[in-house]
Amino acid sequence: MKRFRDPVAVTAMVGGVLVGAGFAALLLGWRGAAGTLNVALQLPYLVSGGIVGVALIGLGLGLCNLAAARREAAREIVRLRTLIDAAARLLDAQTSSGTGDRVSAQASTQPSAMSASGSSSTVE
Predict the structure, then answer these.
(1) Residue 51: strand pairing partners
(2) For every one of its 124 residues, what pLDDT tens digit does the chain have, with 9 covering 90 and above?
């Protein structure tokens, strides 16, 4: 019953059922058309079985494709969240060890290469 709580799995299952129903409609349409020799009597079977069958197959495959895309997007979000958490842990570890403070302290004690007017100056 846990599978029915996942909307991606339900979408994939519905898509699979629609594809199966589409092939069944194609088969029934073919059997009906093959049973008669009169072309005028074959057309309703071809229309109902063929067009409806192809439409059901297309809709079912579209739903399966949608389910696969949603599943891949969810996996990508999980990977990105894991990457962000790892980066946050590295940043916390760097700031707690003091290396980040030393870098900023060195940058603030070095004299600027540019003067207030914007040109470079040398100290003699």
Answers:
(1) none
(2) 666 778 888 899 999 999 999 999 999 999 988 888 888 888 888 888 889 999 999 999 999 999 999 999 999 999 999 999 999 999 999 888 866 555 554 444 555 544 444 444 444 4
